[in-house]
Design goal:
metal-binding; Oxoglu/Fe-dep_dioxygenase_dom; 347 residues; four-stranded antiparallel β-sheet; iron; metal ion binding; IPNS-like_sf; alpha+beta
Length: 347
């Protein structure tokens, strides 16, 4: 009988150690430029949202989410020393021996757990990354069998981080609504009582041929918003703006927040869900942690009524279970959000 046990996969880390880059990872359309211009991402000080400077910070937040779909946030309530711990558990997990990591490996028909790309077709280009994908909120959807027990403090640190991400995401969604002069719970309410949070630890080993290999292919996120803890030292994230790739700078101990497709829909297209990718590095590994804030799949989302008017007609249909739509479209190489767009009649 054929072996169908998906956990016997070759990690990107092993490929890097063997100095191998299989053809499935190689992009043939032109060279990948890792030294693109730097994107001017606004830095928003969250501590000022409760001060006389509130409006100024809200304006900065709004202009960033319109201009490039992302902002860097500082004074977000998480101590530098704690963020160092979060980085450390990620680095320590990916440094474990393969047999230990494979205890948490994903199965063939699931994305959750330790692993890399699901291979969906022969033509698919694979990402130069190993990742650990975990359902982290609400607590009853957690599959603790996939939560590493090494390093010893992994679960405790992640638990604490997720509590902070829950509070931070709520205050960010309220600030985003307030910046548009909307009732502050209007985006939060559309996320529903049982919105999910998914954590994805990303490990990008050094790549022998960074000019033809991507850490993550171009895509936009299916989330409401995504909160990214970047590597403190190694850049890699790039955002597409006006048909050009820009590097996203590192703000030490800041968090990068980007709009996902679902808030683009809720904001009737005012806030943009940016297409982004990750480039690879010939010499250095890179560790990041993305937390995706996902609306409840059983609750429909749509543009907020107050944002629909003659100057800005309704641009998106109401959508339920956007994530399902997302994966169907993504596999066919389309931008999933296009299937939610309403084509405006030409005069």
């Amino acid at each position: 009988m054929a072996e169908t046990h998906e956990t016997v996969f070759k990690s990107v880390q092993e490929l890097a150690n063997d100095n191998q880059v299989p053809e499935k990872y190689i992009h043939t359309q032109g060279s990948i430029n890792s030294s693109s211009p730097l994107l001017d991402v606004p830095v928003v000080d969250l501590s000022l949202l409760t001060s006389p400077a509130r409006q100024q910070e809200l304006n900065k937040l709004q202009s960033g989410l319109k201009f490039c779909g992302c902002i860097q946030v500082i004074n977000h309530g998480l101590a530098d020393s704690f963020l160092d711990k979060v980085h450390e558990i990620s680095k320590q997990f990916f440094a474990l021996p393969a047999e230990e990591k494979l205890k948490y490996a994903r199965t063939v028909d699931d994305i959750y757990g330790y692993g890399n790309d699901s291979v969906l077709s022969d033509k698919q280009k694979l990402d130069w990354t190993d990742r650990l994908y975990l359902n982290v909120f609400p607590e009853d959807i957690r599959n603790l069998k996939l939560w590493p027990q090494k390093p010893e403090c992994f679960r405790e640190v992640l638990e604490e981080y997720i509590k902070n991400m829950k509070l931070l995401s709520e205050s960010l969604l309220k600030a985003m609504a307030a910046s548009l002069n909307l009732e502050e719970n209007c985006f939060l309410d559309q996320c529903g009582e049982r919105g999910d949070m998914i954590a994805r630890f990303n490990f990008y080993p050094p790549c022998p041929t960074p000019e033809v290999v991507l850490g993550v292919k171009p895509h936009a996120d299916a989330s409401a918003i995504t909160i990214l803890l970047q590597d403190k030292e190694v850049e890699g994230l790039q955002v597409l703006k006006d048909d050009q790739w820009f590097r996203v700078p590192i703000v030490p101990y800041g968090l990068l927040v980007n709009v996902g497709d679902q808030v683009e829909i809720m904001s009737n297209g005012i806030f943009k869900s940016p297409v982004h990718r990750v480039v690879t590095n010939a010499d250095r590994e890179r560790n990041t942690l993305a937390v995706f804030i996902m609306p409840d799949v059983t609750v429909g989302i749509g543009p907020v009524e107050k944002l629909i008017n003659e100057e800005r007609p309704r641009a998106y249909k109401d959508v339920k279970n956007y994530v399902e739509l997302f994966f169907q479209s993504y596999q066919h190489g389309k931008r999933p959000i296009e299937t939610a767009m309403i084509c405006q009649e030409q005069d």
